[in-house]
């Protein structure tokens, strides 16, 4: 099967990237619709991909290599991490801000997402322990005052639903937020960790099995089995190192404004645009 290259971004960046590509590789048949340019039947080899990556990073253009003729409806499930993927914030960092320890907690979060702290469960328990004694009303404040879907989230979800895909939110964060997002965004499935509370305050503990990288992968696998599809028919989106295991199962893995370790291993990356870049890869030529 032949491969197309889809460029998305501002028109000046796309024009510049296209000019550089055609200067290096000669005439490349393409068509443009709005902010999307599709190059048809490109040379899909490592040298060309590396060149495209360098050009698009410089010109701040997102790109995707997609099988010619592929449609979003070829897939059956879209899987999303929550923090810094489906939403713009890291919820635990914002909860910590309520007690003046955001910098301390955020440093652990960042190191974990970069893959510098390999044990996600240990990292999560360390951070949650620092929240002991916080009034659980702080969670509601974070949800109402700080939590916003990432740019393009609603458009992306509308496109996937229209194409017949089911939606799975799987997070190393907390059910307090995933359940609200599930209802708000009309998601099919959601899984996360449960914070323990007592007498209206956080105890600093997490209940039950931790949703770490391996558990995320298991949830993707079991959801695909429930839907009677192979994991190759799943599109998985994430930004941190704890997303890599589930991303490796997917037919398409998307690093969304991700840490370098994730971007290096994903099949696709969105570095500049919103989540709605992804369905743009599948628009008809």
Just name the CATH architecture of the largest domain. Answer: 3-Layer(aba) Sandwich
**Number of separate structural domains:** 2
In CATH, the homologous superfamily of the largest domain goes by the name HAD superfamily/HAD-like
The gyration radius over C-alpha positions equals 20 Å
Distance between the termini: 16 Å
CATH class of the largest domain: Alpha Beta
Structural class, please? alpha/beta
Which term fits the overall shape? elongated
Strand order of the largest sheet: 8-7-6-5-9-10-11
| Helical segment count | 13
Overall mean confidence score, pLDDT:
95
What is the third-level CATH name, the topology of the largest domain?
Rossmann fold
Beta-strand share of residues:
15-25%
- Give the SSE order as H and E letters: EHEEHEEHHHHHHEHEEHEHEHEH
What's the count of strands? 11
User: How helical, in percent, are the residues?
Assistant: 40-55%
List keywords for this structure.
Alpha-Beta Plaits; Rossmann fold; 2 domains; 285 residues; alpha/beta; single chain; 43% helix
How would you briefly describe this protein structure?
With 285 residues, the chain is α/β, with parallel strands linked by helices. 43% of the residues lie in helices and 22% in strands.
What is this structure's SSE topology?
Blueprint: E1 3-8, H1 11-25, E2 30-33, E3 36-39, H2 46-59, E4 62-67, E5 77-80, H3 82-86, H4 91-97, H5 102-113, H6 120-129, H7 137-145, H8 153-162, E6 166-174, H9 175-185, E7 189-198, E8 201-207, H10 213-227, E9 234-238, H11 244-247, E10 252-256, H12 260-265, E11 268-270, H13 277-280
Parallel strand pairs: 5-6, 5-9, 6-7, 9-10, 10-11
Antiparallel strand pairs: 1-3, 1-4, 2-3, 7-8
